[in-house]
Amino acid sequence: MFKILTIHDKQSELFLRKKTNSVSDPKMVTRSFINEMKKTMIGANGIGLAANQIGNNTRIFVATHAGKFYVFINPILLKSSTEEDTMEEGCLSVPNVYGAVTRASKVVIQGIDVRGKLVKLKAVGLLARIFQHELDHLNGTLFIDKASETYSVED
């Protein structure tokens, strides 16, 4: 499993706040790398993980929702609804902190999957939120930057 970078370390926070680089050859992204990302995410009780959260400066994220596993390489947000929802979010890179974040309730995202195929997906509700949260990571934005207010809990 990979080590997850957190904002508690200044160097890590600087890295997390930088926009990631596109993957020049998506076919070079190995299944073993994706599997390690998945194991790391699940091992940390997460539902999404961006590559920069494990120190890899590339535009890749993995996510899980309703028993399905998603991989996006070079993801882009094609559409987002004007309808919004506000929900509590947390983040593996901002441990023990939670806050209410307003996001589009529906999105259309496009990227490349682990087989190198172009995928386009419409997501609603929690899945749309997960995708937006992970895209924010790839753009150097943390949920605490968007939260109306945050609060901390102890381990």
In short:
The protein has 3 helices and 8 strands; from the N terminus they run ααβββββββαβ.
Describe it for me?
Strands 1-2-3-6-7 form a 5-stranded antiparallel β-sheet, sandwiched between helices. A 3-stranded antiparallel β-sheet has the order 4-5-8. It is built from 3 helices and 8 strands. It is an alpha+beta fold and 155 residues long. It has one domain: Alpha-Beta Complex (Peptide Deformylase).
List the strand order in the largest sheet: 1-2-3-6-7
- CATH fold node name: Peptide Deformylase
Q: What's the average pLDDT?
A: 96
Tally of individual helices: 3
Give the helix level as a range of percent.
Answer: 10-25%
Would you spell out the secondary-structure blueprint of this structure?
Elements (H helix, E strand, L loop, with lengths): L9 H7 L14 H13 L4 E3 L9 E6 L2 E13 L3 E8 L2 E11 L1 E7 L5 E7 H14 L11 E3 L3
Antiparallel strand pairs: 1-2, 2-3, 3-6, 4-5, 5-8, 6-7
Key structural traits:
about 160 residues; alpha+beta; 5-stranded antiparallel β-sheet; 3 helices; 8 strands; about 35% strand
